[in-house]
Each structure stands twice: as structure tokens, then as C-alpha cells.
Write a structure and sequence with these properties.
mainly beta; Immunoglobulin-like; 46% strand; globular
Amino acid sequence: QVQLTLVLENDSYYLMVEDQIPAGAEILDTRLKTSRQDLEEYQAAAPFKNGWGWWYFNTPLVLDDRVTWAVNFLPAGTYQLTYTISLAHPGEYQVLPARAWQVYFPEVQAISAGEKFVIETGD
């Protein structure tokens, strides 16, 4: 499971959050019949399983290489966004930084640190 933490010092309008996935992995999109169906969107017994503040965000846009969230208004605070990836091919990969920006004020943006990601064989 991948977890992004977003910290806002001020209220933000029309915010986008985008996270690239490493080349050896793929995002599990539970809206598709080909993905695992035991991963529920919401569980009453664990309401914060998907992170904190996820209810502010629109349904994430899941693409082959990234996942993107959009929100019209987000109050100042700390938020957690999560999604699940499947590890497909062993190797060492570079993870590109996650980005957050305001659509109408692109000078207001943030970029996380990039890092290396290692998928090991199950031997």
C-alpha cells in the first residue's frame, strides 16, 4: 500500500495531487473486474483505512503510470491519501516525486522526494 501525506498551511482551492508509480508495479483499480475485489472503497469498521481526509477528494483518476486526485476545496490541515499497488517485475526502480499544485495558481505547488524502489524475487 502506498500512502501520501499532504500538509496544507492554508485553505486551498482547485488542488491536484499526482503520484507516479514505479515501472515494476501497477495500481490495483478495484473498479475493474480484473483487479482484486476484496479491497473495499469504504469499511464502516475502519473508516480511515483509505487515509485521513479522503472524503474531500473526487474519485481518483487511475492511469497506467500514475494516480491523480482532484479537490475543489481543501481546508488547511494534514491529509493522507492511499492506494494499493501490485508488484509485478523484480528489479530496482526510480520512484518519481509526487506533485501537488493549485490548478489556477500553478506557482503554488509542492514536490516530494524521489527515491529508489526495489522489488525482490520471492525465492
